[in-house]
Design goal:
Strand content of chain B: under 5%
Low-confidence stretches of chain B: none
Radius of gyration of chain A: 25 Å
Radius of gyration of chain B: 24 Å
CATH architecture of chain B: Orthogonal Bundle
Largest interface: A-B, 96 and 100 residues
Keywords (chain A): Cell membrane, Membrane, Phosphate transport, Transmembrane, Transmembrane helix, Transport
Oligomer: heterodimer
Number of strands of chain B: 0
GO cellular component, one term (chain A): plasma membrane
GO molecular function, one term (chain A): phosphate transmembrane transporter activity
Number of strands of chain A: 0
CATH superfamily of the largest domain in chain A: MetI-like
CATH topology of the largest domain in chain A: MetI-like fold
Number of domains of chain B: 1
Mean pLDDT of chain B: 91
Mean pLDDT of chain A: 88
Helix content of chain B: over 70%
Number of helices of chain B: 12
Strand content of chain A: under 5%
CATH superfamily of chain B: MetI-like
Shape of chain A: globular
Low-confidence stretches of chain A: 4-20
CATH architecture of the largest domain in chain A: Orthogonal Bundle
Largest sheet of chain B: none
CATH class of the largest domain in chain A: Mainly Alpha
Number of domains of chain A: 2
Transmembrane segments (chain A): 39-59, 90-115, 135-156, 168-188, 283-305
InterPro entries (chain A): MetI-like, MetI-like_sf, Phosphate_PstC, Phosphate_Transport_Permease
Shape of chain B: flat
Amino acid sequence: MQELTSQLVQKPSRVIVQDRKTKYTGRNIRWEGVFKRSLVITALSVLVLVVGIFITLVVQSIPSIKALGIGYLTGKTWDPVSDIYGAWPFLLGTLLTSFLALIISIPFSFAIAVYLGEYRPTGWLSGFLKNVVELIAAVPSVIYGFWALVTLVPLVRKLESAIGVAPYGVGIFSASIVLAIMIIPYAASLGRELIQMVPSSLKEGAYSLGGTQYEVIRDVVMPYTKSGMFAGVLLSLGRALGETMAVTMVIGNTSLIPDSIFSPGNTMASVIANEFTEADRAVYLSALIELGLVLFLVTVVINMIGKSIIKRFTHE
Amino acid sequence: MNKLNPRIKYRLGMSKLFHALVIVFAFMIAIPLIAILFFVIKEGITKINWNFLTNIPKPVGEVGGGIANALLGSLIIVLVAAIIAIPIGIFAGIYLSENKNSRLSYWSRLAVDILQGVPSIVIGIVIYFWIVKPSGTFSAISGSMALAVMMLPIIIRSTEETLKLIPFTIKEAGFALGLPYHKVILKVIVPCGFSGILSGAILSVARIAGETAPLLFTAFGNPYLNANVAKPMQSLPLLIFNYATSPYEEWHNLAWGASMILLIWILLLNIITKLITQKWKVQL
């Protein structure tokens, strides 16, 4: 921090020298007003942007809300050719893939968080692990999809024929695995920060009573970070719900209701990606946008809850 | 050790077992990363040559062809997105750090939080109705707008966090010298936080350079070379998506080469951000 401050102090002196000639003229005062106003305008524009996104989604889904009503979300058939729109297969597909991905990812992100936060916060090995986690977050979704299509799908197909279900390869299970890999970094890095915030006096107290490292983690670190960990899981759920490309590439893209975790399906995001540019009727297009609206509302609510929990946790 | 009573032995054993499990699970994350890097490099490296970089894709059945259209398109789309998003993001970030408690900053901050969580495909839909539909054609500029919307929260957040750390005394010194407000901000405060703002901007580019979903209904893709931002344009992620899901071997090859270039580009951007943050000790 001190180094930072010293750097900060040095820099402006150089800059100000160039401005020695500046006089507090009328022009400067005018520019000051322009500058202040443009700051307000940009801040306002972000707000307008978000409100605009919401309003656009609502307005564009009105035809579908009018024509299909509330039954749209529970309708079990999606058949645009005969003008039947029911979103249930996609809602179910989204929920299945996201929760399955969450369940798969939790042990890994938890282990990374504990390792980096408690066992070995510094050192080259944890530096390596941190970099790996950052790179996992950086790889584009479409490359995950391509990779999964070529290597993961054949593996899943083998597994499926070994346990005796229809060997599609693509499907909800494959999509969940890819999603799980993609969301691990979010929960892991948040979890690490939370674990490092546990006061060492609490841990030292537990050690001095003779607790082993495992017992300290189980009985002190975990209870202390419980709410924050829950928020981390929520935030990665938000990520998983909206993820589009990798899922679209490996989920199989059928509009039938999935009957097991191995069957192909569709998520809300993947059906939008596949059918949006093909939608030729107003109701069809509007039905897809309503899916987008649902997706928007669900992810916003989940993110807000998650972030408010984190805020409360870090202020305590 | 042999004299320890069994209860203690059990507890120590549990602790060791847990430690081992944590290590095993934690380092398993390296497997998919190594697998992805290995496959993309193995498949990609043989496809990349001069023709691959300078030709446009050939029709199915013809050998050769390249991804020049996607390289150029990606560059233009991302550059325009950065030109749109960086000034707005920095200004909004300055506002938030200058007015910490105003009502507008409360709502703006909330908006930034929301924007960060909006699924990219939803942004694609909205930009479709804002730009593509009124103008009647898919266009590169609409793709850039969609990406710019995704960049904003990252730039705003990093600008705000960086400027918050700058001591108030520096600003006071500026005012004491008689500088007007905008000069204090633009010539004193912003240069102080330059490294943080820069790394935020590069990070935001790294985050959106591989985005596909918002481009599906905006930039759309184009099999020909095009530098007109009012027309549909190809980009690397779009090309990978379209060709990877196609049944043709030649197109798969193009997609592998494109994947490798995209991956290297994004990893480089991430490494640059990392070097900047380490050199200037910025916290993002």
